[in-house]
Amino acid sequence: MSEKTFKKINKAIGRALHQYNMISDKDRIVVGLSGGMDSLTLMWFLHERLRRIPIDYELLAIYIDPGFENSFSENLKAYCRNMGYKLHVELTDYGVLSHSAYNRENPCFLCSRLRRKRLFELADEFGYYKLALGHNKDDIIETLFLNMFYSGEISTMCPKQFLFKEKFTIIRPLAYAEENMIRKFAKQNNFPEFVNVCPSASISKRREIKDFLSRVYKTDFRIKGNIFRSMTRVKPEYMLNPKT
Ligand SMILES: Nc1ncnc2c1ncn2[C@@H]1O[C@H](COP(=O)(O)OP(=O)(O)OP(=O)(O)O)[C@@H](O)[C@H]1O
């Protein structure tokens, strides 16, 4: 394992956990495991921290299988078993349905809404009220732009979010971790690649925003940090407010 990458991600996670008070002793946490690098890294770190920190928590990994052919569910199960965890696989038709004629919306939109809903239902059934997701710093920036470009609003995903009258808490411990660092960590540690067979995986609006941002970042190394920081420094008095 590369100490440098480990330290960077560990520091970013520590900061997010601390600043947002994400995890308490005896928490029961569902980890939404997609098989992607982010959620695999998230699971790895949440597991690894347990040995070092004075608080205890339980982890339950859940994978919502979108129902495409060539599912990697069994391989993901085996991977979790090796780590000492049971993976709950929920076989659905969400991916297939979202790409069918039945759906008139954006496939990613419908699929992720159905997935999220099922994750909450399962967490509730199992008695887990925290849901850890693998969104990283780059995802948070991209969502800001996606929401501006396609929803006409300025908003993003919060590192910690209460839902359903605070019954559930979503936490995003990788909120301060950069995607390229996560990729590097996953590679250095030989994390398996669970190939996403979704037909929209490489053609989504998020992909377009990602490409747009990566071109912008190349023009000035400060831009990414500045965009991220700007989300903590909103000046409502310098926004448009027609009702005043
Ligand atoms: N099929 C799924 N089952 C369970 N959780 C999921 C699933 N898909 C996504 N998630 C959760 O939502 C987060 C964000 O989803 P997104 O679609 O951006 O994931 P991804 O890019 O496919 O994979 P990852 O974020 O793990 O690299 C994931 O990190 C994971 O925590």
Automatic annotation (TrEMBL):
The entry marks the following residues as binding ATP, namely G32, L33, S34, D38, I64, G134, D139
Q: Which residues form the tRNA(Ile)-lysidine/2-thiocytidine synthase N-terminal domain?
A: 29-192
Q: What is an annotated GO biological process for this record, any one?
A: tRNA processing
Q: Which GO terms describe its molecular function?
A: ATP binding; transferase activity
Q: Which keywords does this Swiss-Prot/TrEMBL entry list?
A: ATP-binding, Nucleotide-binding, Transferase
Tell me the domain of life.
Bacteria
Task: Point out the signal peptide segment.
Answer: none
Against Pfam families, the record matches this protein to: ATP_bind_3 (PF01171)
Mind telling me which InterPro entries this protein's record contains? Rossmann-like_a/b/a_fold, TilS/TtcA_N, tRNA_thiolation_TtcA_Ctu1
What is the designated name of this protein? tRNA-cytidine(32) 2-sulfurtransferase
The organism of origin for this protein: Desulfonema limicola
From the UniProt record, report the name of the gene that encodes this protein.
ttcA
